[in-house]
Design brief:
It is a single chain. By secondary structure, the protein is α+β, with helices and mostly antiparallel strands. It has 2 domains: 140 residues, Fructose-1,6-Bisphosphatase, Chain A, domain 1 (2-Layer Sandwich); 116 residues, D-Maltodextrin-Binding Protein, domain 2. 33% of the residues lie in helices and 28% in strands. Strands 5-6-7-8-9-10-11 form a 7-stranded mixed beta sheet, sandwiched between helices. A hairpin with a 3-residue loop joins strand 9 and strand 10. It starts with 13 loop residues before the first helix and ends with a helix.
């Protein structure tokens, strides 16, 4: 699973057991079935088990660091406005994660919200996408409802996504071809959902771009057709909640890749769908709209959004 190694397999990772493949060494060759596309990807030289263990350790230690810093005074700055905050803790946590990754894998690239790593994303075969504290406003005001988000992409394919909620000690983890987990519990979206029964989450209501193009009105119409709407203030956590079935869907007009990269993998490994609102595939290094939901009402949700846009 995602949180601990197999008890009686000291030299073979549990990931290998789940996938049914056994690397000959730390840097051996693995074959992983792409469950969504039905394509087998040959991962030459990709150290999947070492990456998994490092990502989990980084997420947990980063979460621990954030909790420790909450007990002390810390500085808060504006990025672009009073509603777009960054703290000294964001920067410290990202620096810790980046340093830890590069110590183990100096040839890997990092794309982080706080830009602690200056390399060009496209230059790296393996790219870690990091949001040290997703939900900084919640971190500052509530001290809950924030998360550490870490995704690992290899040759443009999402290999692993982790969203860790340190205030609740909840580790959401998705590994390509091996499923999704909340701590030790497997996640699988099996419940059938109709639009009228859905509990949705969105950041659209307060997004300025959404107001400019009118999509805020579209989502307001949607609010009248579903069971309820929520706004948590952490895209990574909201997408993880979709994977866990706590929410049925999530819609946002504009997110950065570090907001959705990990959540996308977790949702898909739980059996959900995560795309742009247009239905196109999500990019992994560019800003994008996001629609993530239980697959049983994906078409209905997308149809309603487009129908409302035309009316």
């Amino acid at each position: 699973m995602c949180t601990r190694p197999a008890a009686n397999l000291p030299r073979v990772s549990l990931m290998s057991v789940v996938l049914g493949v056994y690397p000959s060494s730390k840097y051996g060759t693995l074959t992983i079935a792409d469950r969504l596309g039905g394509v087998a990807i040959q991962l030459q030289g990709f150290p999947i088990d070492a990456v998994k263990q490092l990502a989990l350790r980084c997420a947990r230690e980063a979460g621990k660091l954030s909790l420790e810093r909450l007990k002390q005074p810390f500085s808060v700055e504006y990025k672009t406005s009073a509603s777009d905050l960054v703290t000294a803790v964001d920067k410290e946590v990202e620096q810790y994660v980046a340093d830890t990754i590069l110590k183990e894998f100096p040839d890997h690239g990092i794309l982080g919200e706080e830009s602690t790593f200056q390399g060009e994303s496209s230059a790296y075969e393996t790219l870690w996408i990091i949001d040290p504290i997703d939900g900084t406003t919640n971190f500052v005001h509530q001290q809950i409802n924030y998360a550490v988000s870490i995704a690992v992409y290899y040759r443009g394919e999402g290999m692993m996504g982790i969203v860790y909620d340190p205030s609740r000690d909840e580790m959401f983890c998705g590994i390509r071809g091996a499923g999704a987990y909340l701590n030790d519990r497997p996640l699988a979206l099996k419940r059938k959902v109709k639009l009228e029964e859905a509990l949705l989450c969105t950041s659209v209501f307060w997004n300025k771009r959404a107001e400019q193009i009118g999509i805020d009105r579209i989502v307001k119409k949607l609010a009248g057709k579903v069971r309820g709407m929520r706004l948590l203030g952490s895209a990574a956590l909201e997408m993880a909640y979709v994977a866990a079935g706590r929410l049925d869907g999530y819609v946002s007009m504009a997110l950065h890749p570090w907001d959705f990269a990990a959540g996308k993998i977790i949702v898909e490994e739980a059996g959900g769908i995560a795309t742009q609102i247009s239905g196109e595939a999500l990019p992994y290094t560019q800003n994008s709209s996001v629609m993530a939901c239980n697959p049983t009402f994906y078409d209905e949700l997308r149809f309603h959004l487009h129908k409302s846009a035309e009316s």
